[in-house]
Amino acid sequence: MLLSLTLNGKKIQADIDPDMLLLDFVRAQGCLSVKRGCETANCGLCTVFLDERPVLSCSVLAARAGGHTVTTLEGLQQEAYEFGEFIADQGAEQCGFCNPGFVMNALALFRENPDPSEEEIKEYLAGNLCRCSGYEGQLRGILNFLEWKKKGGASCRQ
């Protein structure tokens, strides 16, 4: 079947099998930030934006994205880089495997709730798998990023 969608701002048409997952489709298009982790929609590693809403691409058929806009981390480089520095400052990027999904979900949180409480942050990101850091570094990074944004996002963060 023919799939037409917009991926990271670029219109794409491709022949796909009807049972192809969105995860496999975006990876086939070179978006390697989208990872296969648990294959049970529990880890957050495969998070993409579908029409600006975070979805787990391992649980969405590619055909369901037809006519829609899909955004991966590759399509959010500047925004992701700005936030990612705060995670790295806390040593929370260690192996890096979970980072793309984590960053995608954090960016979704910031768009949905620009001033979340610590409890709201924990709740929103509860489905993200990270086996290296224990989540405290990510939480500190998010809180530092939000504080930096409140101050106007000056070029010198420290």
Topology at a glance:
Layout: E1 2-7, E2 10-15, H1 22-28, E3 47-50, E4 53-56, E5 69-71, H2 77-89, H3 99-112, H4 118-124, H5 136-150
Parallel strand pairs: 1-5
Antiparallel strand pairs: 1-2, 3-4, 3-5
Helix pairs in contact: 2-3, 2-5
Question: Key features?
Answer:
single chain, 158 residues, alpha+beta, five-stranded mixed β-sheet, 15% strand
What does this entry look like structurally?
The protein is of the alpha+beta class. The protein has 5 helices and 5 strands. The chain has helices at 22-28, 77-89, 99-112, 118-124, 136-150; strands at residues 2-7, 10-15, 47-50, 53-56, 69-71. Strands 2-1-5-3-4 form a 5-stranded mixed beta sheet, with helices on one face. Helix 2 (77-89) crosses helix 3 (99-112) and helix 2 (77-89) crosses helix 5. The longest helix is centred in the C-terminal third of the chain and has 15 residues, at 136-150. It is globular, with a radius of gyration of 16 Å.
> Helical content, roughly?
25-40%
Distance between the termini: 52 Å
The counted number of beta strands is: 5
The profile of the biggest β sheet is: 5 strands, mixed
Shape: globular
Give the strand order, joined by hyphens, for the main sheet: 2-1-5-3-4
Spell the H/E element sequence: EEHEEEHHHH
Query: How much of the residues is beta strand, in percent?
Result: 5-15%
Mean pLDDT: 90
Weakly predicted, low-confidence segments:
none
What structural class do helix, strand and pairing data support? Answer: alpha+beta
- Whole-number radius of gyration? 16 Å
User: What is the overall number of helices?
Assistant: 5
